[in-house]
Amino acid sequence: MKKLAVLILFIACATGARTEAQIAAEPTKASRAAPEKKAKKTATDKKTESPATKLFGQDGSNAPTTTEIYADEAFFDSTKNKGIFSGRVKVTDPRFNLQSDKLTVFITKGQNQGLEKAIAEGSVGLVRDRPNPNGGPPTRAVGRADKATYTAATGDVELRGTPRVQEGLNMHVATSPDTVMIINQNSQLTTHGPSRTEIRQQPNEEKKGEASPSQTSPAQTPPVPALPKP
After folding, report:
1. From CA 101, how far away is CA 123, in angstroms rounded?
2. By 3-state DSSP, what share of the chain in percent is helix, strand and coil, each rounded to 5?
3. Are residues 131 and 49 in the same domain?
4. I need a surface site. Which of 14, 125, 171, 215 has the fewest CB within 10 A?
5. Cα separation, 131 vs 117, whole angstroms
6. Distance between CA 71 and CA 98 in Å, rounded?
7. 83-124, pLDDT tens digit by residue?
């Protein structure tokens, strides 16, 4: 009887130890699976982030833009994020060059502050270069007006006050003081209101040396013989 009781007790202890060993082993498997899931997730995140980084140019191609403003006088209002420049104002920017008598600049709020809007007034002159898709020299557009407004969000420059734009030999002139011209960031021009366009073409140098048909001497013909006398 004692041997039977001891045998039953031994079997019960062995079964309990095996169950505890299985319970203790299960967290180990779960802990092994967790790093594997994290590793897979990290690899997936890297694959997802890579195209976005290339798309938005975060690998160094998205360089900051610097705008330089020269003037005789300057006033800054930090509460309104505004600056007023007057007297021989000159603006140098990779997107455009501008000169005027007065310039009001609005700066964006927040940590990443930058140019939000610029309003130029008085004898405004604007220069924008359009890149040549064939790799040649850029096409330059020169605009003049009484007032120009630049919006950084769209890259558009709005000209008001009898504006006129010249590109090469061609001239586009407003015939009304209410006409508005808009030059986008690709130097494309849109006009709202009456205007006049002058398209000039230089003469072809190859044809300068060629004489016109009127200048060529006619072929010499033999004289008509005189009629005999009666």
Report:
1. 6
2. 25, 40, 35
3. no
4. 215
5. 24
6. 12
7. 999 999 999 988 789 999 999 999 988 777 888 999 999 999
Q: Give Cα 45 to chain centroid, integer Å.
A: 29
Q: In the chain, at which residue ranges do the beta strands (DSSP E only) sit?
A: 68-70, 73-77, 82-93, 96-107, 115-130, 139-151, 156-160, 164-167, 170-174, 180-183, 189-192, 195-198
**127-154 CB burial, b ≥16 within 10 A, e <16:** ebeeeeeeeeeeeebebbbbbbbbbbee
Task: Residue 184: give the domain boundaries.
Answer: 68-200
pLDDT value of residue 54: 28
Among 20-34, 40-54, 131-145, the range scoring the smallest mean pLDDT is 40-54
Q: What is the pTM of this model?
A: 0.58
Residue 43 shares a structural domain with residue 4: yes
Residues 127, 133, 135, 140: what is their CA dihedral angle, to the nearest 10 degrees? -20
Distance CA(98)–CA(144), nearest Å, equals: 10
Same domain as 166, residue 81: yes
Residues 93 and 107 occupy one common structural domain: yes
